[in-house]
Amino acid sequence: MGCEEVLALLREREAACRREAERLRGEAERIAGLLVVCEQELARVATACQVVGELPAAHGEAGSGRGRIPAPRAEVSGTVGSQAAEGTGEFTGRMLGVLAAYSGPVRCRQVVEGLGLEATPREVERVRHQLKKAAAAGRVVQTPGGLFTLARGGAAARG
Predict the structure, then answer these.
(1) In the chain, pLDDT over 70 holds for what percent of residues?
(2) Nearest alpha carbon to residue 143 among 54, 22, 76
(3) What confidence category does residue 57 fall into, taking pLDDT thresholds of 50, 70 and 90?
(4) Is residue 80 over pLDDT 90?
(5) Average pLDDT over residues 69-90
(6) 69 pLDDT above the threshold of 50
(7) Which end of the chain is more exposed for a tag (fewer CB within 10 A), N or C?
(8) pTM score > 0.85 for this model?
(9) Which candidate, 149, 130, 128, places its Cα nearest to that of 85?
(10) Whole-number Å distance between alpha carbons of 35 and 81
């Protein structure tokens, strides 16, 4: 094999390496673009998580009048309302017992599950309403993120 043949093979190899390097540069640019899009989406999702995390408190405050008396139950019979009123004190006591079992703030869903109820949106809202009433009475503390914890001191012990 002569010098000319070796030089031709080397030039051929050099051209192939240049093509591969160019292809990889294009792929790197494409991946960099995808990375930018992914990072933007990540930032949007993080913002959405933050906003949704704050919604239960805002929703509960804005919708508390709406969820106060469910229309179908109130219209069924007069005894349903009186039974509910009698059971509210017992229910609140059970709810405070669940809160006492946790060392820190918890979401309404955890309280619902602790009460042994099915965690449907209706039940979660019902418990949230009761927790907000207990918070207004000073028995429960609500954090800005929509978490609840048992109030420490005499307010929680009044039962």
Answers:
(1) 74
(2) 54
(3) low
(4) no
(5) 44
(6) no
(7) N
(8) no
(9) 130
(10) 57
Which amino acid appears at position 47 of this protein?
A: T
Residue with tokens 């405070």: 96
Tokens standing for residue 80: 């349903």
The CA distance from 113 to 107, in Å, is 10
Average confidence (pLDDT) over 58-73 = 42
Q: How far apart are alpha carbons 135 and 150 in whole angstroms?
A: 9
Nearest Cα residue to 140 out of 157, 123, 118, 115: 157
Question: Residue 109 in contact with residue 146, Cβ under 8 Å?
Answer: no
Determine what percent of the chain falls in helix, strand and coil, rounding each to the nearest 5. Answer: 75, 5, 20
Q: Which two tokens stand for residue 9?
A: 């093979």
User: Residue 121 belongs to what H/E stretch?
Assistant: helix 121-136
What DSSP state is assigned to residue 66? T
